[in-house]
Every structure is written in structure tokens, then in C-alpha cells.
TrEMBL record:
Recorded coiled-coil stretches: none
Occurrences of domain Transposase IS801/IS1294 (ranges): 6-88
Gene Ontology MF: a single term: transposase activity
Protein name, UniProt field: Transposase, IS801/IS1294
InterPro entries reported for this sequence: Transposase_32 (IPR007069)
GO biological process: DNA transposition
Signal peptide, first to last residue: none
Pfam families recorded: Y2_Tnp
Length: 133
């Protein structure tokens, strides 16, 4: 259920969501120099860190090697569920039909118009576009 304490932590939840959907690198901070523009003939990738004073230069193959480390192996579990959402807990609730009887929390203080506005703002934050206007 939404209570006042949880709504005050909305900023923290948004930061968590941004962290989850964030890519391991930023295309805006990436600059590619083709091999024809470099005297030694090796293509370069320059990556600017979060603070613009730090820049690293990699060969294209070194950059790809660093990028590939973020790809999970086949069958590797990258999302783990604990507590209420764990497989064991969900299975036990399904067997006892407790999941069906669990009431769904509804916040009656928020109108449908406000909900649409909140969703539009969140979609705009994720996709950088105003689609629901």
C-alpha cells in the first residue's frame, strides 16, 4: 500500500529504476576514430568518464573486449528474487492458494488523471519523448 513515507521516497525509487535500466556505457561519451584517421592504422575509441576531465583511449578490439564482459553467459542468472518474490515463496503460495486471496493495494487518493500524468512523466524520463500528450 502507498503511504506517505513511501511516496516521499519516490525520488529514491526513480534513481533505482534509472540504475537498473542504465546501459554499461553511454553513447554520448563515446567517440570513434576510424583507422584511416590514425597514423598507426589502428582504429581508436575514446571514452570520456563521468567527469569530463578523464578520457581513456582504447584500440577498437580492446574496447570490444571490455564491452563483452558485460554480456552474461548463456543460462547465467542475472536477476535474483528474494523473500516474497523468490521461486520457493511463490510456489508455496500457489500450492496453498494464498496468492489468490492476497488483497491488491489500491490508493484511492490518486485520480485517474493524476495517474496518467505520472505515467506520462515516467515514460518521458525513460524514452526522452512525450508520447501521451
Amino acid at each position: 500500500m502507498w503511504n506517505r513515507h513511501q511516496t516521499e521516497e519516490r525520488g529514491g525509487l526513480e534513481k533505482l529504476a534509472q540504475y537498473i535500466i542504465r546501459a554499461p556505457l553511454s553513447q554520448e561519451r563515446l567517440f570513434y576514430i576510424p583507422s584511416s584517421a590514425v597514423p598507426d592504422g589502428l582504429a581508436r575509441v575514446i571514452y570520456k568518464g563521468k567527469n569530463s576531465s578523464v578520457r581513456e583511449s582504447f584500440t577498437a578490439l580492446d574496447w570490444l573486449a571490455r564491452l563483452v564482459t558485460h554480456i552474461p553467459n548463456k543460462g547465467e542468472q542475472i536477476v535474483r528474487y528474494y523473500g516474497y518474490y523468490s521461486n520457493k515463496s511463490r510456489g508455496m503460495r500457489t500450492k496453498t492458494d494464498i496468492d489468490i486471496k492476497t488483497p491488491v493495494p489500491v490508493d484511492s487518493d490518486i485520480t485517474k488523471k493524476e495517474l496518467r500524468r505520472i505515467w506520462a512523466r515516467l515514460i518521458q524520463k525513460v524514452y526522452y519523448t512525450a508520447t501521451l500528450r
